[in-house]
Amino acid sequence: MDIRQDPNSTNQLTPLRIIRGLACLVVFISTAFMFLVYFVPVCVGILRLLNVHYSRKTVSYLFGLWLGLWPFFFEKINRTKVIFSGETAPEGERVLLIANHRTEVDWMYPWDLALRKGCLGHIKYVLKSSLMKLPIFGWGFRILEFIPVERKWEFDEPIMHQMLSSFMDRRDPLWLIVFPEGTDFTEQKCKKSRKFATENGLPVLSNVLLPKTKGFHACLETLRLSLDAVYDLTIAYKHRCPTFLDNVFGVEPSEVHIHVRRIPIREIPPSEKDVAAWLMDTFQLKDQLLSDFIANGHFPHEGTEEELSTLKCFINFGAVIVITGTFTYLTFFSSIWFKVYVALVCTYVAFATYFSIRPFTALDFAKRLSRHKKVA
């Protein structure tokens, strides 16, 4: 992850941007740590044993509260313009969301749409299993029930079906995000993708990679009856694709353009072959949209979403800081038992992350105990 200066950019790296970016990183990491340590035992350890639905609702609310810091940072502090186009998505839907993968930070920008729809805490990802091992954030990914994949279907299929089947209750909020390309776009990967397409009679694409269809079909097959729609997001940047550090220090992007298509679930074919063809057609449309964006500097039908409320962003930021400040005081300046508590929670969460232990319910525990007795 490097910081690359672009002569067309109006945001040059300065000492002030470096200090501000580092300060924001400290805030993000410290707030994430305190939320995990103090809320996980109640929301996941106790509440989930009693009621999965209320546990997920609570986790969703707290996750949305914390995650709201990022759009606030992007749009209000870094002054990144996020411009939506295409269709207007309704609020409160359960959706499967697909997007192109231009760079290492594409996964962050659906948050700006989700916040506007009141669904920020509903987000889950299908992501590389190696990310689940990250300290602090990997802990959170597991607690939030993100779906880890190895990119080998024989390993991924049973895990995906097992986890997806637990998301079928329509009462549980869900925005499940999938990047069908499976990796971020580079010119080298594009050449390989184009060569493969030519050799196999598939569409030759210039701005996206050929999508992988099995994971997308697995999501549809399992969740179809509980979903309202598929949201197809096409993401583009001015003046170039940003890195994570570009985001942190506010160097790039100056503009993020997100084109939204809403496809009702009933309009997507059921069979795996037809779903694969539908996804391929969708990525051909993405490729054309990106070509038009390169030529024109914008997507068609802009202005479908309003700007974020600065007041609401500051209220959310204040709430997160007050909660984190309270927990920080209890940890470092209060009874020694709080230090013992934090140490025990960190030990448990690190252990659960290393050994891939997922949150479970009282029913799950009873089933495991019954199987153990039968084996004994």
Report on the structure:
- This protein has 376 residues and is of the alpha/beta class.
- Helix content is 53%, strand content 12%.
- It has one domain.
- The protein is built from 13 helices and seven strands.
- It has a seven-stranded mixed β-sheet with strand order 1-7-6-2-5-3-4.
- The N and C termini lie far apart (51 Å).
- Pfam families: Acyltransf_C (PF16076), Acyltransferase (PF01553).
- It catalyses: a 1-acyl-sn-glycero-3-phosphate + an acyl-CoA = a 1,2-diacyl-sn-glycero-3-phosphate + CoA.
Q: Which short descriptors sum up this protein?
A:
376 residues; alpha/beta; 53% helix; disordered N terminus; 1-acylglycerol-3-phosphate O-acyltransferase; Plipid/glycerol_acylTrfase; EC 2.3.1.51; transmembrane helix; Acyltransf_C
Describe how the helices and strands are arranged.
Elements: H1 15-50, H2 52-67, H3 69-77, E1 81-86, E2 95-99, H4 110-116, E3 123-128, H5 137-143, E4 147-149, H6 153-165, E5 175-178, H7 187-200, H8 214-223, E6 229-238, H9 244-249, E7 255-264, H10 272-296, H11 310-333, H12 336-354, H13 362-375
Parallel strand pairs: 1-7, 2-5, 2-6, 3-4, 3-5
Antiparallel strand pairs: 6-7
Helix pairs in contact: 1-2, 1-5, 1-11, 6-8
The neighbouring-strand order within the major sheet is 1-7-6-2-5-3-4
Strand content: 5-15%
Query: What characterizes the major β-sheet?
Result: 7 strands, mixed
- Tertiary shape: globular
In short:
This is 1-acylglycerol-3-phosphate O-acyltransferase. 53% of the residues lie in helices and 12% in strands.
